[in-house]
Every structure is written in structure tokens, then in C-alpha cells.
């Protein structure tokens, strides 16, 4: 598992597959605004939005990993279930859902196969009670 950068469910981002070149993580607080007469709005903390992570990278399918990587990523979108996320260092980061996958293809062979595939995947943290998690098993 030395070349694995991150694993989402059974999908591995790694040096021999879809290596991401950029990872951004967002945490967001939710604040409700209460209007007040003659003064500024009052803000009230109402919770946290789900954390999100966005991976983006470039795949050279003729060099490593083959042509199925972006299709496998798109398949994760349609699963519709939370997946465990584990860092390449073995840190379990909880359950996450795949919100979107986008891809771009360029530099094509005569047969139409792309030599360069760029991807972006956005995932969100799935925080549910233990009962919800047990129903998924």
C-alpha cells in the first residue's frame, strides 16, 4: 500500500492509478441571521456544514493505470452510499459521499483514445448517527 495516496471505498488514488496533484479541504460554519430594528443583524451559530474535499489531477492512461480510472470514479457517484476514506498513511477519516466527478480528455490518438485525462472529484463528510451507519451494513 506504499504507493496509495488515499483510498475511498475500494477506489485507490495512487501513483499507479489516478494520482491527484491538488487536494483542497473545506470546513464551514452555518450562521443564521436575525434581523433587528435600528441595528445590525444578530448572528447565531446553528451548526456545521459537512466538510468537503476536492481532488484534482491528471492521468496519463497509456503510461499507468489504463483507461478505466475515470469511469470507475463516475461509478462511485451512482453508488449513493457513504464510503470510508483512509489516507495513505493509514488514518481513517470517516465516511464520505461522492458529490461529483468531472473529467476532461485531450491529446487524442487516431482511434479517439485520450492520452491525457484530467479529473476533479468532490466528496462530502457523511455524519450520521450509529443507527444510520448500521443500516448500511
Structure write-up:
- This protein has 137 residues and is mostly beta strands.
- It contains two helices and seven strands.
- The protein has a seven-stranded antiparallel beta sheet with strand order 2-1-5-6-7-4-3.
- Strand 3 and strand 4 (42-59) form a beta hairpin.
- The model has no long low-confidence stretch (mean pLDDT 86).
List the helices and strands and how they pair.
Layout: E1 4-8, E2 11-14, E3 20-34, E4 42-59, H1 69-79, E5 83-87, E6 92-108, E7 114-125, H2 130-136
Features:
137 residues; mainly beta; 7-stranded antiparallel β-sheet; 2 helices; 7 strands; 13% helix; elongated
Radius of gyration: 19 Å
Low-confidence stretches: none
Q: Helicity, in percent?
A: 10-25%
Query: How are the strands ordered across the major sheet?
Result: 2-1-5-6-7-4-3
Q: Mean of residue pLDDT?
A: 86
What share of residues are in beta strands? over 45%
Strand count: 7
Number of helices: 2
Give the end-to-end Cα distance, rounded to a whole number of Å. 25 Å
Return the structural class.
Answer: mainly beta
Shape: elongated
Order of helices and strands: EEEEHEEEH
Assembly of the depicted chains: single chain
Main sheet: strands, sense, barrel: 7 strands, antiparallel
Nutshell version of this structure?
The chain is mainly beta and 137 residues long. It is 13% helix and 55% strand. It is built from two helices and seven strands, in the order ββββαβββα.
